Amino acid sequence: MATPGAQHLSPRERAAVGKAARARAPRSAHGEFEPPPGRPDPVDVIEDQSAQRVPELVPIRYGRMLESPFRFYRGAAAIMAGDLAATPVSGIRAQLCGDAHLLNFRLLASPERRLVFDINDFDETLPGPWEWDVQRLAASLVIAARENGFTDAERADIVRSTVRSYRERVRTYARMGNLDVWYDRADADRLTELAADQLRSRGRRQVSRALARARSRDTLHAFAKLTEMADGERRIVSDPPLLVPVRELLPDHEREELETRIQGLLTRYARSLHSDRRALLAQYRIAGMARKVVGVGSVGTRCWVILLLGRDDEDPLLLQAKEAGESVLAPYAGVSTYGTEGERVVAGQRLMQAASDIFLGWERADGFEGRQRDFYVRQLRDWKGIAEPAVMVPAGMRAFGELCGATLARAHARSGDRIAIAAYLGSGDVFDRALARFAESYADLNERDHQALADAVRAGRVTAAAEVAE
What we know:
Layout (H helix, E strand, L loop, with lengths): L10 H14 L17 H9 L7 H9 L2 H6 L2 H8 L8 E4 L8 E5 L5 E5 L6 E4 H18 L4 H23 L3 H6 L2 E2 H11 L2 H16 L2 H8 E4 L2 E4 L6 E3 H4 L2 H18 L5 H7 L3 E8 L10 E7 L6 E8 L6 H4 L7 H12 L8 E8 L2 E9 L14 H22 L2 H8 L4 H29 L12
Antiparallel strand pairs: 1-4, 2-3, 3-5, 6-7, 8-9, 9-10, 10-11, 11-13, 12-13
């Protein structure tokens, strides 16, 4: 990272870098995709990941991925990372989400208690070619649109509109000052304005309901759903296999040891917080712990929900300590420069998000199942709202895609050379049309990979659990 006073290229010089990159990777070349020679068996890639996860939870992961090509795609970031490594790149890097599919863009609460739209999942974040995030987003839209029965023309329009939104927003950021880029965000007011401009009355009502639902999905909502009073004490409910209190996981001696390790993790994690937030956390006491099954891509990673109580038993804070492994991008984009994988996740999230959770932090913990593991910690739920692609019509998915594209552009503009990226993309739609072609080709490959998993389950090569709702 450059330091104040270091020599910087002028905007003109940075634009020249972007334009020169077109010779190395023509924009139209992004549309031509073929699986790389010697491509690994997709089931082998998934199994390699599963070998590092909680064994009894792995069948849940496979069961979820079997449900549809889109659900498979959500769990297949490692497969796509290897595929993207063989595609053309401009050589311009930015901090990547690493798993920028459409459901990882959602409504979140800012520290100022405003509802904002932003990227949510950063388990795979790492610096790398900015194109990879845009390609993963574009392919996710085609895969979701196919499941909705949209036509070829409708899918192409959705992807082109999404990529155009990314391109035009990057060009806008290229003309802005650094602080103006840094402070920019999409809040609820902007979402309402976009809905009024682009959607009909039904779509506007859906946006209004989504905003209301997100505001209701706060800590108190999670507290009411995930806890109960028993013998005069507040405790986490049991809902196996998705949520299992530590008291039910292990015999007494092993349970006490695990509880001690989680308490130690939480105590040490506080050192990664700003001093004011450490002071706030210190006002709470631990009241319960449980193992939680998380989203499709992370099923089987170790994830602990920790119930803390403050002023009294009706003043909760729910934290989630989630295992952080190496990014799926690392073999292709380079290993993390941070000391732990948890810090990598937190640093990437803080860099890409307009406003991050005040309790976001990390810790490396010893002794979990006899080995050292990295974790990052955040609030379990804080005004979160997620899209529902299955109920979207083409116009709604197009508007949502445009919002995702603009949000991704802002995240890349904070860390990458926005002027060089803007100059590379230019004012025409060459890249937009190329990504529409790429997304269709990759959706075809994803369907074949999904079928490969289904065949592996039928053959008894891997075991999939019956459907377990998220």
